[in-house]
Amino acid sequence: MILSCPVMIILMEGGPDQLYWQAFKKRQQVVANYEACRRTARQLAYEVAALKAKKEAETGDLLSVKELSDMFALHQSDMAGASKRTDMADGFVKDCIFVFEKMLSDPVCNSCLDILEEKFGLSSPLNSLQKMRVIIEKSESTPTRWGHRMIFLNG
Question: Which of 42, 116, 39, 108 lies closest to 79, judged by CA?
Fold first, then answer.
């Protein structure tokens, strides 16, 4: 199946931070207007983790989840107006970072998510930060998490 997404040219002014938030808002607007271009929960988690890494590289200091959440909170109204989804709800940044650190950094888990996304697309049963967070929380011990990875692979 070939999906077509609109080509978008964005003219923006401002510094790097202003450009980041303008681009984020524009991506959310595309999602609201063109559902086929919607990002997966995994893509959102990677995007938030990438911003965290970028900000830490710029400042040389570690950025807490609270500080990152505060950055997103400053732009909440722009993002909410640009999105039909509730991705930007309270806890969004915390869930993104938690899922990124605990699940997306694991190549086996990522492979399993690849399989689910290939099979189900955006309807993947794990295309949800909240569902991924619950799986992580329920499998905190290494043997249990390994067992869940095997269920993913064989499921």
Answer: 39
CA–CA gap between residue 89 and residue 73 (Å, rounded): 10
Neighbour-count burial for 1-30, b at 16+ CB within 10 Å, e otherwise = eeeeeeeeeeeeeeeeeeebbbebbebbbb
Q: How far apart are CA 119 and CA 134, in angstroms?
A: 22
The average confidence (pLDDT) of the chain is 77
pLDDT tens digits, 29-43: 766 556 666 788 999
pLDDT grade for 84, boundaries at 50, 70 and 90: very low
* Residue 42 in tokens: 């995994």
For residue 102, how many other CB atoms are within 10 A of its CB? 18
140: three-class secondary structure by DSSP:
coil
